[in-house]
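G., the chain you wanted modeled:
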Amino acid sequence: MERKASTARSDLEQMLADETAEPKALPLSLLQDITGDFSDDQQIGSGGFAVVYKGIIGNRAVALKRLSNALMDETEFHREVQCLMRVKHKNVVRFLGYCADRQGSMEKFDKKLVMADVHERLLCFEYIPKGSLDKYIMDASREWRTCYKIIKGICEGLQYLHENHIVHLDLKPANILLDDSMTPKLTDFGLSRCFDENQSQDITKTIIGTMGYLAPELREGGVIARSADLYSLGVIIIEILTGQKGHQATDGGN
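Predicted structure as tokens:
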């Protein structure tokens, strides 16, 4: 077990040093080790479906997205991993690996202790220190040159996804990270769809995405297409240029 953990640690260190290295499966024991067993002190973000931790490996850092066991959808996890395995671009956060683990755990149910299956699903990414774009939009000191660089980078990242038949479907400032040089990187592919080469759209009965950035055709007709991302992109560009969260008006369909 120790040898396996040591090998996995070495593999992850090599991946961080080699940007051409391919993502791979990572053991849960390693991810527990580099986060202090998912210590609260290492938590750097949280949402309705996941908690994000900072992991330390050598003199480098990684970001670990730990999906909620209660809310986790196996299909969504597989979809996100499949999409992430296909992408490699300077404006998309680098995917390093994943963990899919199942363990038995004694849990209290109806005043009794029962053995329950605990599913652990984690995604490992490069660590982006400056956080997300939504924290920068309201910054009064932002400069036009930086705004242009961010907009250009988002457009290039989105173009890359679309050329590779991937529709993001949850493009918003919170899902765009900024590195030390203010280069934007698209992240969070939990709702993304990977199309076949000749496929241009799909239909869903479930509203997916974030209100305010949700295209009318997706919100009202369930149409999944590249145009949905372009609508979200337009809202983001307006917010970057104005320095204001302007999407409230779009929630009412105006």
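The first strand starts at residue 24 and ends at 25.

Shout if anything looks off.
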